[in-house]
Amino acid sequence: MANSPTYSSGSQLNLVKRLYNKQAYLNTIDTSFSELVPPTPEPTPLPTVGEFFQLYEDLFYGIPKEGETNSHEYLIRQSTDYIDTGLISEDVQALLDEITSLRQENLELQQNIVDLTTSINDTTRTTR
């Protein structure tokens, strides 16, 4: 800095340096950073059940039918799991019973075909 130019405006500037001991410094100077901390956001209240269903009605056609999340399929899966999927409605049980009955009838008809085929083959062999 020896080679730095010196400028003089012709006026004198007096600087005062204050020194504090540690305790006086902590009592005098605010060392917290409260001005840099963003304000805590207000918590958003959850909608009531009535408000939820009103929102659901408003958004119904905007919700995709299928999808892992955020879809009608997801809502059905979540609700079904919650109310216990072990419960089978009367309509579903009636359909399951009908399927069982039709399978049994199908087996009987297939057995009749086998019996008739065997009988025809036996008759054909004896008449030759």
Key attributes of the depicted protein:
4 helices; single chain; mainly alpha; 0% strand; rod-shaped; 53% helix; 128 residues
Task: Give an overview in words.
With 128 residues, the chain is mostly helical. Among the domains are: 46-86, no CATH class; 88-123. Helices cover 53% and strands 0% of the residues. The protein contains four helices and no strands. It is rod-shaped and about 145 Å long.
List the helices and strands and how they pair.
Blueprint: H1 22-28, H2 49-59, H3 72-83, H4 90-127
Strands, count: 0
Shape: rod-shaped
The quaternary structure here is single chain
User: Uncertain segments of ≥5 residues (pLDDT<50)?
Assistant: none
Main beta-sheet strand count, sense and barrel state: none
Decide which structural class fits the backbone: mainly alpha
- Put simply, the count of helices is 4
Arithmetic mean pLDDT: 84
Order of helices and strands: HHHH
Query: What share of the residues lie within helices?
Result: 40-55%
What value does the Rg take, in angstroms? 44 Å
Summed up, what is this model?
The chain has helices at residues 22-28, 49-59, 72-83, 90-127. By secondary structure, it is mainly alpha-helical.
